[in-house]
Amino acid sequence: MTITSQQDTSTSLTCEHLVAGYGGPPVIRDVSVRVGVGKVAVVAGPNGAGKSTLVKAIVGHLSCSSGSVSLDGRAIGNHSPENIARYGLGYVPQHQDVFDTMTVAENLEIGGYLLPRKQVPGRIDDVFSVFPKLAMLRHRPVGRLSGGERKMVAVGRVLMLRPKVLVLDEPTAGLSVSLTVELFETHIAGLARSGVGILLVEQKASEALRIADWGYILVSGEVHVSESAADILSRPDLGEVFLGGSTSLAGSSLLAETETDEDEGSAP
Amino acid sequence: MSQVISSLGFGIVTASILLPAAVGFTLQFSTTNVLNIAFGAQMTFAAFIAYLCTQHGVPLWPAMVIAGVFGALSSGLLNRLLLAPFQRRGTSFFGMIVVTIALALVIEYVVEIIWGPSSVSYPLQGGKAVHIGSMIFSQEQLIVIGVGVVIALCTHALLRYTRIGKAMRAVAANPALAKSSGIRAQRVTDFAWAASGLMAGMAGVMLGISVSSVSYTMGDTFLIEIIAAAVLGGVGQVYGAMVGALVIGVLLEESAIVLSGAYAPIAAFAVLILVLMVRPTGLFAGTAKVKGIA
Q1: CB neighbour class for B33 (10 Å; exposed up to 12, middle 13-18, buried from 19)
Q2: Residue A30 DSSP class
């Protein structure tokens, strides 16, 4: 399926024809996604579709064998994760998204590692104003926090550098429904309004699509659907198959393809 | 009873040597995931560098500082030029152990070629012995204890309060996330290896002072005690390594009261095994299964 470009012409993050994998056959093939300035784009798709692989290729943890990634017009494909952070791309991984052995405040300090030293306390206060609960927990080791609190630390850490684009890999995995709604509708929507472009990867994407502008559905390492979020939400066929109802997956022809592709979790 | 206390004095001296060694060993492991069998050999080489200095008229304590600087530089370069390239090519954890075993042998034989197989010793002043209760310390031993305490305090300050120290803890806890926070992980691990090389160098000289001899195999026997201290504290835990050094150091000397010298290590290792049976993760790993320095 060809990729129709987003209506918005000012694009922050552009990935074109990305091919990447873990040494064997590529896990993602010819994937193109875009995130506009202050827009939310959702990448959905079943387990093993290559969502995490796509994210790792974008943020520099996995090298792309072909294709291009650019951030605000600068080519960042196959740059080191350290440099990609410097260019203004923030990344919240699905797992191991915090420094467990360090306190909340220390996690945020590391998030602000690239800042001039004098700016760090002010930025930490900014993060505390977004997540007031963290202020009370500032001296607590993150390993002792609840899942929701840890995710606040993880998001707070990337906010320290005020990224132009934020890439979040399944941020709601393990969160309760109310925390998921709060994360999406308060925090992520708020960030987008402040001009941050957001690439949100979600397996159960219907909640995410409600705050999104554009949606992609990845199946077997390829983009099968690229439409506005509202259009995807209104398509009953997709809603059943990809956006949550996991029990209704059997019998889908698209899913049959995905079952052969389970190497997503084998990242080094 | 007085024998117990006087052995405690020796135990504190041994612990003061074991402490920088176990902390250095732990820093290397936690930041780069390398279990460095060549750590004892690094100590030995630096101890001989100090010996070389004293042969040329440098007083012992400045010679120890020079040995520490040598240890820091050689250890940082070792990580950058040898170990990091192996790891970049995907050498496994056990592969890296084999690399460090080979390295230990190379270093030891280089030392043997340069300084010969027989042991040498530093020019020790002895000086007036200092009595604290029934513990007796030579002035050199007191300085060794002082250096051990200073290294412990500096390590604490480094990891808690400095930017590079926090970066080291971040790299130890989660290297991928540290990189995505903009930390140049390679520079941080080079620094961690340099710091641990400094500790190895100082510990090597302190050991040479304490046992009044320096030989090309001195690091081998000591390595076992370093590993014991590091494992007792909880692998990868710097504060655990400090406590482990204290416990193993004191036990080694106390058990010499009941067991003759050569068998003394048995008691220390029996305690190590008992602790690990009760707490397989060591004293300080706690419930967190994560790897990290603090």
Answers
A1: middle
A2: E
Interface check for B170 against chain A (CB to CB < 8 A): the answer is yes
Contact B169 A97 (CB under 8 A): no
Is the model's pLDDT at B155 over the cut of 50? yes
Q: Could you tell me the domains of chain B?
A: 2-288 (1.10.3470)
Instruction: Give the one of A84, A101, A161 whose C-beta lies nearest to B288's C-beta.
Output: A101
CA distance A73 to A86: 15
User: Could you please report the per-residue DSSP string of B133-197?
Assistant: TTEEE-HHHHHHHHHHHHHHHHHHHHHHH-HHHHHHHHHHH-HHHHHHTT--HHHHHHHHHHHHH
A122 or B290, greater pLDDT: A122
The chain A residue lying nearest B161, using CA atoms, is A106
The mean predicted confidence, pLDDT, of chain B is: 90
Indicate the residue type of A212: A
The ipTM of this complex is: 0.87
B293 inside 8 A of chain A by CB: yes
Q: Does B89 touch chain A (CB under 8 A)?
A: no
User: What is the rounded CA–CA span in Å between residue A37 and residue A33?
Assistant: 14
- According to the model, what pLDDT value does residue A239 have? 63
8 A C-beta contact, residue A203 and residue A46: yes
Nearest C-alpha in A relative to B176? A61
Mutation to test the B interface, candidates A71, A86, A110, A124, most B Cβ within 10 Å: A110
CB of A56 within 8 Å of a chain B CB? The answer is no
Find all residues with CB under 8 Å of B273, minimum gap 6, and list them.
Answer: none
pLDDT digits (tens, 9 = 90+) for B157-205: 999 999 999 999 999 999 999 999 999 999 999 999 999 999 999 999 9
Contact across the interface for A106 and B169, Cβ inside 8 Å: yes
How much is the average pLDDT of B251-260? Answer: 82
Contact B181 A59 (CB under 8 A): no
pLDDT at B284: 75
Burial (CB count <10 Å: 0-12, 13-18, 19+), residue A7: exposed
Number of Cβ atoms within 10 Å of the Cβ of B93: 10
Distances (CA, A) of A261 to A188, A237, B131: 31, 22, 73
Q: What is the DSSP letter of A22?
A: S
Determine contact, residues B97/B103, Cβ cutoff 8 Å: no
Q: What angle do CA B16, B159, B186 make, to 5 degrees?
A: 110
Contact A101 B173 (CB under 8 A): yes
Q: Kindly state the greatest CA–CA separation across chain B.
A: 57
Residues of B in contact with A113 (CB under 8 A): 163, 167, 170, 181-183
Low-confidence stretches of chain A (pLDDT beneath 70): 1-9, 239-268
pLDDT in tens, B74-91: 999 999 999 999 999 999
Query: How many C-beta atoms lie closer than 10 Å to residue A23's C-beta?
Result: 8
Asked if A213 is an interface residue toward chain B (Cβ–Cβ < 8 A), one would say: no
